[in-house]
Every structure is written in C-alpha cells, then in structure tokens.
Amino acid sequence: MTHLIEKPTQRILVLGAGELGIQVLRAMSQQARRHSQTQISVLLRPDAASAVSGARKTRLDELVAAGIHVIEGDLQNQTVDELSQLFRPFDAVINCSGFVGGPGTQIKITRAVLNAGVARYFPWQFGVDYDVVGKGSGQQVWDEQLEVRQLLRAQREMEWVIVSTGIFTSYLFEPGFGVVNEKARTVYGLGNWQYAVTLTTPEDIGMLTAEIFFHQPRFRDQVVYIAGDTLTYGEIADLMQSHWGGEIHRELLDKARLVNDVRHHPESVAAKYRLAFGRSDGVAWNKADTFNARQGINTMTAREWLAENGVG
Q1: Which among 207, 218, 214 has a CA at the least distance from the CA of 159?
Q2: Omega cis (within 30) before 123
Q3: How far is CA 192 from CA 234, 250, 264, 275, 280, in A?
Q4: What is the distance of C-alpha 144 from the center of its chain?
Q5: Which of 47, 77, 105, 299 is in the most buried spot, having the most CB atoms within 10 Å?
Q6: What phi and psi, each to the nearest 5 degrees, are found at residue 287?
Q7: Whole-angstrom Cα distance, residue 115 to residue 80?
C-alpha cells in the first residue's frame, strides 16, 4: 500500500491590514488556494483585532471569511523578545506595517524576525531604492530602511526579498505632497523636470508581492523592482494638462528651494518628502526592467488611475 507523504503546511504571517496590508492579504489568500498546505495569518493590534463595529469590523469580517487567522500583537510597544515569540511559529513574514510605529520600529521588527528563526522575510521596504538613495536624504525613516538592509545582508540564516515599488500612485496626486495642485491648475517639478518618480497602486503591489512570493524559481536575498508607472515631472505636467484640458502652470522647485522649504518648515513631512524626491536617482526605475513587465503582468498607469479616480 502506497502512502502519500503530505507536504508540511507553510505558515505565512502578514504584519498589518492597512492600505497595503489588506491588498497583500487578499492576493496572498487567493494564491494560497492554488498552493495547498499554505496558511495565511495576520497580526493586528488588540483594538483592531477585537473591533465590533465600523470599518475595522468590516475588514476583520473579510479576513476571517477568507480563512485568514488573526493574531494579536503590538509592533510598537512589544519588545524584540515578545515579538520573536509571536513570529516563531511562522515560516515566512511579510511586513506591511508602514512607518506608523515611529523611529526604530523597523529595526526592532527585523531583529525579532531574525531571532525567531523565520525562514523567509519580506521587510517593509515597499518604497524607493534605499541603497541608491543612501543616508542623508532628509528622511530619517529612509536612513533606518538602509540600516534594515544592512542587517539582512549581514546574516545568512534567513532568506529575504525586498519589493521596490516607488510611491503609492495616489500619493502623487495628494494636495499635501505638493506636486499636483488642482485648484491652481499647477504642477510643480521637484529638482528638475527630467527627474522621474516610480509609482504603483496598493492593489498592484499586493498582487505582485503574492506573485513574487510564490514565483519559481524562488527569489532569494535580492531586491525585486515593480512599477505601475515611471514618469518624469515634465511628463506628469503633460499628463495633468491633458487630464484637465487647456494650459496649466508649471513651476520648478529647484534643489535650493526644496532645501530652504525644509529649513523653514522642519516639522513638515511633505516638505521633507519633496526634497527626498527631488533627485535624479533612487526614486525611479525603468518600468520595462521590472518584474511585472518581464512577466507580462499589466499594472495601472497614472493616466488610468486618473481616469478612474480623478483629482480632488
């Protein structure tokens, strides 16, 4: 009599179910249906895990209905040892926690994942190319992201995969970012009209992260680039002129102006982001060279996002 050998269950933990986390969870749960013996869990703060009404309750119901296990934890307040205990039962961790934990949180999470003996880790690096940007970009959290990469590269026990996405597509059009101003019909170039920015929607990031996670041959200890679109600030101005119809005002914020804005408004996160994105490298890459382009996977462009969402 032949006995079938069951594959061991692969236990995957996603940290957070916010704007990006929920998209990663949806895509991972869909992929899990095609990959037997895969179990998805999500780490939520106690208040989110016990929500009884409102948007949190709706999201919690969706997770449970999809067969996703909910566990409670506090990435900001729990110690490295406490987080390690939470992570230890899992084979892989995908970190979608964002920067809300404050300075030092991403280093703490990475140390906890390493101490837990997790086999595979997707850190919270869904952003720019921190290797190219380096330290001193004007963004303290970006400096910490580079330190996370150094921690990962200094060890050999755990595999890691970084998914570089650029900014969320919607952020480019946020009034607070200060690139697209609908009321004034103005587009501001950061640093130089030929400087570019890469952007991807959370939905596409979620879908592509799941594709990358299950891809064969599997990605190990490397940065994987994805993109919904890559546009120069001049192309963004052209896009908005086409979208709005008629002439628009174009104003270049050169490096001196960007630095001056930060100096006079040190508390402004948006001013620091404008300075960080007013550069020639590290915040954009050719879409043709990305994982999604090589795999023939369609992603939403900025023009398509505008047609669907508008700017308000």
Answers
A1: 218
A2: no
A3: 9, 12, 21, 12, 8
A4: 15
A5: 299
A6: -60, -30
A7: 8
